[in-house]
Amino acid sequence: MVTKSSEWVLVDFWAPWCGPCKMIAPILNQIAEERDITIAKVNTDMNPLSMGKFGFRGIPALVLFHNGQVVDQMTGARPKPMFDQWLGKYMN
Predict the structure, then answer these.
(1) CB-CB neighbours of 33 under 10 Å
(2) Residues 6+ apart with CB under 8 A from 26
(3) Average of per-residue pLDDT across 80-90
(4) Do 38 and 10 touch, CB atoms closer than 8 A?
């Protein structure tokens, strides 16, 4: 579905037991309100093979798509200004 979208999509790979994933969830919600971007969430416990497609070994992991293509990816929790800077490189 993401690969067919012409919009900006940020896919968040997370798990219910992941503390850093819980920390960035409100930040991602805020980003979705501030920017023209869709946040999609993939529970890695329910979809264990999904991370392997992108070579991730840890979560949280984020993949930024535009026009169905991977633009960039990152792993780990960050403060909101770092997410804004990262997204700003591509979306501004």
Answers:
(1) 9
(2) none
(3) 97
(4) yes
CATH number of 20's domain: 3.40.30.10
What range defines the domain where residue 71 resides?
2-91
Q: CA dist 89 to 42, 48, 57, 63, 86, Å? A: 24, 30, 25, 14, 6
Binning pLDDT at 50, 70 and 90, where does residue 5 land?
Answer: low
Nearest to 62 by CA among 17, 4, 21, 92: 21
Number of domains, the chain: 1
- Catalytic site residue from 9, 10, 21, 51: 21
pTM: 0.90
Q: Establish whether 75 is a catalytic residue.
A: no
Q: How is residue 15 written in tokens?
A: 């798990």
The catalytically annotated residue of 18, 59, 63, 87 is: 18
Q: Quick one: pLDDT band at residue 3, thresholds 50, 70, 90?
A: low
